[in-house]
Amino acid sequence: MMANGWKTPDEICRDYHIKMGTFYLRRKECLSNPDYRDAVIRDGGQITYIDENLWQKFLRYRSEQYRIKHLDPHLRR
Is 1 in contact with 52 (CB distance < 8 Å)? Predict the structure, then answer.
């Protein structure tokens, strides 16, 4: 990991136990969300870094959206 909290996609896949295909799906979703798109740093066409702190916030957001979607409609806020 870099000193600034950035990781490569390979490091994210290894540390979060996900496959590269899953990472690319998450990355696409992250980039489409204006609140979290800065988690993906692209330095040219082939070089990508992930701001892990913002990435984790994005994952928490996804988790909350999943919870809301699967919650009994009568219990939703």
Answer: yes
Q: Which long-range contacts (CB under 8 A, 24 or more apart) does 25-28 make?
A: 26/58, 26/59, 26/62
> Is residue 1 very low, low, confident or very high in pLDDT (cuts 50, 70, 90)?
low
Beta bridge partners of 49: 41
Residue type at position 57: K
Q: What pTM does this model have?
A: 0.84
Q: How far apart are CA 11 and CA 77, in angstroms?
A: 37
Asked if 48 and 9 touch (Cβ cutoff 8 Å), the reply is yes
Backbone φ and ψ for 44, nearest 5 degrees, come out as: 95, -175
Q: Do 13 and 23 meet the contact criterion of CB atoms below 8 Å apart? A: yes
